[in-house]
Amino acid sequence: MTMVERVGLYIERLCESIGVSAANIYHPSTDAWYFSNGGSTIEVFLTTQKNVDGDNDYYLRCMSALCEIPKDIMRQFALYRTVLQVNAKYLGFKIVADEGRGLLCVVSERNISGMDYEEMVGMISYIAHWGTKLEKYIAAEFAG
């Protein structure tokens, strides 16, 4: 069994443990699973990147949208400055701009080589926690 197949089984196992069907939360158009955590949604998917030898490395990426990217350039600047400060202060995640969707997202990613079930669940839980916390923080900082 490949690690990609194993991670697929981990996702099915997690879904069973929380009482949802992996098929019901999977969206083929994005090739991702969408977990709900309170008001947040955690997008979980596998992606590839070429390593130094030119071979594919497979990564699990977990992300949660925090807010829409403001259209006003001054608000954008203030938001990006705040997120750079958050990125410098905390470890284990990064905040990124998903320009294609117009969203600011918190992301955690890891090469799946050697990943076990508990680590995968921990990654998803970590992003669920920080997604909720950072969404509230950004909303409070940029209210108005």
Structural topology:
Layout (H helix, E strand, L loop, with lengths): L2 H16 L3 H4 E2 L4 E6 L2 E11 L5 E13 L4 H17 L4 E5 L4 E9 L5 H25 L3
Antiparallel strand pairs: 1-2, 2-3, 3-4, 4-6, 5-6
Instruction: Flag low-confidence runs.
Output: none
Percentage of residues in strands = 25-35%
- Indicate the overall shape: globular
CATH class: Alpha Beta
Please give the count of helices.
4
Please tell me the overall pLDDT. Answer: 95
CATH architecture annotation name: 2-Layer Sandwich
Radius of gyration: 16 Å
Whole-number total of structural domains:
1
Structural class: alpha+beta
Please state the oligomeric state of the protein chains shown. single chain
Please tally the β strands and state the result: 6
